[in-house]
Task: inverse folding
């Protein structure tokens, strides 16, 4: 029997999915319609949300059109004052205070396009949030809800009386009534929550939905520290006769780090130029191209050592020729589970261009490890504060900087900038350099270094912000512990809070590789 109708013409497709950068303009326009008279998101705020916690940013889509959205972040709610504001809990709308180990999801906005209300779009978004909370095993979802009809009753009742009347279904409030119907319970009423919410009298109802499927985990219940042990290699450059000689020296240091139960061992920038000492190539540019032929052996060596000695290795950096026939200065992360990542050097020094023709990378990367998120910024890159800020906003707690400098002035530039980055971003920084000399190797004849591990400058950290440092110009290792739990606490409650106190309304750092 022939079908009278093609039913596909009548079907509608509503989905809830993660927000994308392509949705930003539609969300900005929708917000202007949903909240007239209130400050809308800035584009960079939404971009920050997607960079920091993409899972928590959701949209409702109907037949390809965005008709609703919600935004959230993870926190440990007990770290915030009872009378916190929206700005406090969202870091001014940028959510860079998002804590990936947080127990609570904090919802900072839900909106539905005015033309698509009464289609249970908001309920679908709330259910998606709840499902995410279950998936991430979170304790609860907390929201600071508007009470937009309060202005109609402000002359006759207090916020507390109004909320009580709404709870008893004597008054209808489009937000509070909806939240109560979705299983949220009132915790308290916060004044001055959202400075431009005149309809609510700037009040907000702090509401919580408890995840009954939550399974308590150890995380930090009984943990007062989260130490990470780092072994920094200050590597002596000396003439060798084969790749096996280099491999033998490298394995020795990895063995030392493993014996000390280190989580990371860090080698210096381009220490593999030691191989040039037996390549017998007087031209620096040709010597570099010969050096790149050892890339497979270099990668195989470090991958094997990382797994065999059960330690994450920052393999210094190495010159690599890629398919475009360009040569790059690349730092590899060799994880102890056998996986590998890499960071290209972004800023190339005049010396690297002149002698070796090195090309620049163009992306800032942050890597997940079994000790949290880290970044690698090779030598000159640590002297550009924007890169460290971008990496920190991506979640990095430690920045490793392999370096190679030939004189004290060059070394001090790296050291002072690494210490500044630690203070500016409330992170740990690590520098690892080469010492010694290669007399017969053009442009690698002398080295100067004093390697170190640096911390923010505050009471709970090492005195002078120096976790440890080597003696200058001697081959040795430095082993030190950094505590990620102290870092987390100080970002919230330190003497100064550089991350929280940034003036996003005055300036911004924009990463163009989104």
Result:
């Amino acid at each position: 029997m022939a079908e009278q109708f093609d039913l596909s013409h009548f079907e509608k497709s509503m989905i809830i999915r993660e927000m994308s950068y392509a949705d930003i303009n539609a969300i900005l326009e929708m917000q202007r319609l949903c909240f007239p008279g209130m400050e809308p998101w800035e584009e960079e705020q939404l971009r920050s949300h997607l960079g920091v916690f993409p899972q928590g940013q959701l949209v409702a889509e109907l037949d390809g059109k965005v008709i609703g959205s919600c935004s959230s972040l993870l926190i440990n709610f007990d770290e915030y004052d009872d009378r916190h504001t929206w700005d406090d809990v969202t870091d001014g709308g940028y959510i860079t205070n998002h804590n990936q180990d947080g127990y609570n999801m904090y919802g900072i906005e839900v909106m539905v396009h005015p033309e698509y209300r009464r289609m249970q779009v908001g309920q679908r978004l709330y259910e998606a949030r709840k499902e995410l909370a279950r998936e991430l095993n979170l304790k609860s979802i907390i929201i600071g809800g508007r009470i937009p009809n309060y202005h109609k009753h402000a002359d006759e009742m207090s916020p507390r009386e109004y909320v009580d009347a709404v709870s008893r279904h004597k008054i209808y409030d489009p937000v509070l009534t909806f939240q109560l119907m979705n299983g949220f319970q009132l915790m308290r009423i916060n004044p001055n929550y959202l400075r431009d919410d005149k309809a609510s009298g700037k009040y907000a109802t702090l509401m919580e939905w408890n995840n009954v499927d939550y399974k308590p985990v150890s995380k930090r219940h009984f943990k007062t520290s989260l130490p990470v042990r780092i072994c920094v290699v200050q590597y002596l450059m000396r003439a060798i006769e084969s790749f096996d000689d280099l491999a033998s020296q490298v394995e020795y240091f990895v063995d030392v780090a493993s014996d000390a139960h280190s989580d990371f061992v860090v080698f210096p920038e381009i220490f593999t130029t030691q191989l040039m000492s037996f390549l017998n190539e007087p031209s620096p540019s040709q010597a570099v191209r010969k050096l790149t032929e050892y890339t497979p052996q270099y990668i195989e060596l470090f991958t094997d050592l990382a797994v065999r000695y059960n330690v994450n290795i920052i393999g210094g950096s190495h010159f690599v020729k890629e398919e475009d026939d360009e040569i790059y200065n690349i730092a590899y992360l060799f994880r102890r589970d056998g996986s590998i990542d890499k960071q290209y050097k972004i800023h190339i020094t005049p010396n690297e261009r002149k002698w070796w023709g090195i090309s620049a990378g163009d992306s800032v990367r942050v890597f997940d490890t079994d000790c949290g998120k880290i970044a690698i910024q090779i030598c000159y890159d640590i002297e550009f504060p924007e890169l460290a800020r971008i990496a920190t906003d991506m979640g990095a707690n430690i920045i490793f900087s392999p370096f190679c400098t030939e004189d004290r002035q060059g070394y001090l530039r790296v050291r002072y900038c690494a210490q500044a980055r630690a203070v500016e971003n409330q992170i740990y920084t690590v520098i690892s350099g080469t010492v010694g000399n290669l007399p017969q190797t053009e442009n690698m004849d002398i080295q100067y270094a004093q390697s170190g591990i640096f911390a923010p400058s505050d009471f709970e950290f090492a005195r002078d912000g120096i976790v440890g440092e080597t003696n200058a110009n001697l081959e040795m290792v430095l082993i030190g512990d950094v505590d990620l739990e102290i870092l987390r606490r100080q970002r919230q409650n330190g003497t100064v809070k550089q991350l929280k106190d940034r003036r996003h309304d005055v300036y911004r750092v924009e990463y163009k590789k989104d």
The chain has a mean pLDDT of 92. Residues 15 and 488 are 36 Å apart (CA to CA).
